[in-house]
């Protein structure tokens, strides 16, 4: 009875016994699940498990090796009446009355590691599976490590092809035959809607858990909650109480678990590499509490977003913002130190304004509006205060804004009294059935909306007036070549994965006949679409209109599958090919901005969650250099 050798070798299984299996069962139990990541067992976690089993009889199930875990439990950790191990060699053992009787009288059941495909083949639809469900339902603890954890969820990766798929193999073909997702195995309330995985951090399994979730949710009812993925590190275990609250036991300081929200992995293409724009992952550490099956995590160690493009996994910042303040033929030495400092200060202030919105969980739409408002008030830039003059000596302002989540957009052209034209564009989007209003009608609408109105002299600056007087003499553009194309704009990605873009401009110096450029034209100078990109352009607007430049960038990303930077550069070169100059900024679903310029400089900047504002001016300079 106390030997480590098998006490019984029966058809389909071997039995190993340590301790007195005939001793009375524990008198009290506490329900719970011990979810172990597959490494060395944490003694404190095992004592939690044995305590919930009342220090009684522990039954160990496995499909390979022998009674080693029983020896560890009984001899090394101790505190239990017996450790009884059954090693299955085929499916018929799952119907053996002796095994079923042992499971029914067990105070705690522990499922060892090994090959989970054997567990699926040997136990699904058998009395063993029924006994495991009944054991948990009766308020007794169940534990599993490695493969023994991997098969506990509502859905599971079965490894049915005889191997173990890696992240590098799963991401390029998540719906392929190698990704064997199984169901209708166990039915544990705390793991309803959950897929578990093990050896997580150590074997870089985040990518494959994404693939599991993508395939497992095919055909899932739209009104059902998204599946969750729960990956546990080798050095960690989650002890889940009967009420579903789980805490980490770890053998290493950084040991923990990863909770993947499957909402961003629903409805993915059922062929080809995995494409996912934003997947939320929450870290569970020693000070955290995870609530199952809801997936709520108290005091997480981190909250991260990831994107998958072309089968490659990248971490996405929680939010990201990029801005521009126009383009010009800018070389080092063209700007005085004071002027360069003033431009950078203006860009930095705009970045901080947009970042303040995003850092509080605000929407990308609000962030781009906030950033552009700052630039509209800065006389260094050709938008709002500091706008250039028309041929009639007036300041006529254009602006646009677009929401990538809804494709709603608003724009104004030729307004003369609204302090912040971007606010007027937002009001058109939010409070009218239209996309663009112009001239006197736009002015009247802005006033009716209660937006701040100013005397037209507010927009006048002496520098712009002198440029206008020079233009009157020659009827040629007299802008400072370092700010040849004066427009401001912003693009952003928020914590919910929504993109937005906004653009504002005073237009061209000496413009006539009510000329409108690309800035307020949706698809030309401004565009945003979730899952693709957000764009704000600056330059010779007529050429950007002809190329539908802003929409073109997003189409290249969405339909040609070009990387954002490549799409942005190809678009600006297409503008250049028909005679246009300028630049554009773009933001992708992964939070990485792109800055494209055709042989010009551009006033620009970027900032992302957890980072600092960085600006750039010259063509060979990158923000942050």
What does it look like?
The active site is at 487 (nucleophile). One of its GO terms (molecular function) is serine-type peptidase activity. The chain has 625 residues and is α+β, with helices and mostly antiparallel strands. It has two domains: 12-152, 3-Layer(aba) Sandwich (Rossmann fold), CATH 3.40.50.880; 320-618, 4-Layer Sandwich (Glutamine Phosphoribosylpyrophosphate, subunit 1, domain 1), CATH 3.60.20. The chain has an eleven-stranded mixed sheet, with helices on both faces. Strands 23-22-21-25-24-20-30-31 form an eight-stranded mixed sheet. Strand 18 and strand 19 (312-316) form a beta hairpin. Helix 10 packs antiparallel against helix 11 and helix 15 packs antiparallel against helix 16. The longest helix has 23 residues, at 337-359. It is elongated and about 110 Å long. The protein starts with 5 loop residues before the first strand and ends in a 9-residue tail after the last strand.
Overview in brief:
The chain is an alpha+beta fold and 625 residues long.
Secondary structure: elements and pairs:
Layout: E1 6-10, E2 13-19, E3 32-36, H1 43-52, E4 57-62, H2 68-77, E5 82-88, H3 97-105, E6 108-111, H4 116-123, H5 127-137, E7 141-145, H6 147-150, E8 155-157, H7 167-170, E9 181-183, E10 194-197, H8 206-216, E11 228-232, E12 236-241, E13 245-250, E14 257-261, E15 276-284, E16 289-291, E17 296-298, E18 302-309, E19 312-316, E20 320-328, H9 337-359, H10 364-377, E21 397-403, E22 409-415, H11 421-431, E23 436-438, H12 439-448, H13 462-474, E24 487-493, E25 499-505, E26 526-529, E27 533-539, H14 541-546, H15 549-558, H16 564-577, E28 582-588, E29 593-597, E30 601-608, E31 614-616
Parallel strand pairs: 3-7, 4-5, 4-6, 6-7, 10-11, 22-23
Antiparallel strand pairs: 1-2, 2-5, 3-12, 8-9, 11-14, 12-13, 13-16, 14-15, 15-18, 16-17, 18-19, 20-24, 20-30, 21-22, 21-25, 24-25, 26-27, 27-28, 28-29, 30-31
Helix pairs in contact: 3-5, 9-10, 10-11, 15-16
GO molecular function, one term: hydrolase activity, acting on carbon-nitrogen (but not peptide) bonds, in linear amides
Protein name: Isoaspartyl peptidase
Active site: 487 (nucleophile)
């Amino acid at each position: 009875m106390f030997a480590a050798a098998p006490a019984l070798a029966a058809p389909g299984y071997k039995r190993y016994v340590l301790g007195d299996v005939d001793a009375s069962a524990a008198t009290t139990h506490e329900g719970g699940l011990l979810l172990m990541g597959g490494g060395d067992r944490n003694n404190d976690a095992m004592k939690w498990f044995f305590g919930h089993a009342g220090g009684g009889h522990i039954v160990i199930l496995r499909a390979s090796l022998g009674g080693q875990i029983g020896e560890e439990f009984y001899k090394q950790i101790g505190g239990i009446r017996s450790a009884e191990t059954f090693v299955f060699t085929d499916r018929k053992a799952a119907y053996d009355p002796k095994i079923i009787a042992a499971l029914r009288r067990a105070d705690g059941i522990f499922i060892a590691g090994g090959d989970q495909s054997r567990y699926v083949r040997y136990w699904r639809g058998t009395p063993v599976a029924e006994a495991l469900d009944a054991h948990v339902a009766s308020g007794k603890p169940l534990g599993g490590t490695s493969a023994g954890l991997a098969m506990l969820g509502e859905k599971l990766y079965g490894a049915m092809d005889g191997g173990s798929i890696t992240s590098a193999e799963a991401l390029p073909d998540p719906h392929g035959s190698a990704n064997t997702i199984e169901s209708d195995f166990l039915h544990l309330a705390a793991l309803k809607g959950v897929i578990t995985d093990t050896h997580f951090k150590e074997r870089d399994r985040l990518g494959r858990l994404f693939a599991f979730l993508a395939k497992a949710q095919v055909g899932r009812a739209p009104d059902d909650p998204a599946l969750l993925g729960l990956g546990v590190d080798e050095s960690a275990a989650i002890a889940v109480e009967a009420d579903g609250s789980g805490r980490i036991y770890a053998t290493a300081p950084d040991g923990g678990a990863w909770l993947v929200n499957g909402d961003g992995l629903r409805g993915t293409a059922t062929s080809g590499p995995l494409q996912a724009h934003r997947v939320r992952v929450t870290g569970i550490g020693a000070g955290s509490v995870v609530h199952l099956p809801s997936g709520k995590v108290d005091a997480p160690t981190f909250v991260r977003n990831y994107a998958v493009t072309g089968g490659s996994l990248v971490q996405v910042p929680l939010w990201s913002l990029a801005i521009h303040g126009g383009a010009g033929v800018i070389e080092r030495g063209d700007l005085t130190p004071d002027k360069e400092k003033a431009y950078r200060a203006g860009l930095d202030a705009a970045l901080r304004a947009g970042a303040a919105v995003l850092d509080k969980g605000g929407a990308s739409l609000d962030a781009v509006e906030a950033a552009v408002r700052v630039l509209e008030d800065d006389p260094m830039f050709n938008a709002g205060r500091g706008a250039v003059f028309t041929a009639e000596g007036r300041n006529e302002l254009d602006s646009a804004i677009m929401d990538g989540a809804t494709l709603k957009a608003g724009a104004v052209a030729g307004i003369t009294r609204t302090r912040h034209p971007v606010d007027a564009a937002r009001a058109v989007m939010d409070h009218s059935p239209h996309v663009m209003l112009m001239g006197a009608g736009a002015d009247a609408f802005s006033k009716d909306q209660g937006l701040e109105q100013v005397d037209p002299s507010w927009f006048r600056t002496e520098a712009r007036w002198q440029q206008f007087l020079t233009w009157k003499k020659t009827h040629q553009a007299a802008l400072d070549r370092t700010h040849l194309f004066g427009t401001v704009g912003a693009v952003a990605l928020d914590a919910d994965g929504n993109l937005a873009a906004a653009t504002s401009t005073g237009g061209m110096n000496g413009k006539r006949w009510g000329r409108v450029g690309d800035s307020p034209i949706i698809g030309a100078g401004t565009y945003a679409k979730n899952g693709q990109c957000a764009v704000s352009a600056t330059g010779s607007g007529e050429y950007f209109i002809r190329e539908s430049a802003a929409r073109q960038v997003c189409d290249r990303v969405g339909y040609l599958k070009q990387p954002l930077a490549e799409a942005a550069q190809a678009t600006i070169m297409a503008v250049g090919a028909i005679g246009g100059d300028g630049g554009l900024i773009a933001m992708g679903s992964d939070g990485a901005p792109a800055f494209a310029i055709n042989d010009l400089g551009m006033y620009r900047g970027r900032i992302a969650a957890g980072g600092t504002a960085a600006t750039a001016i010259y063509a060979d300079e990158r923000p942050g250099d």
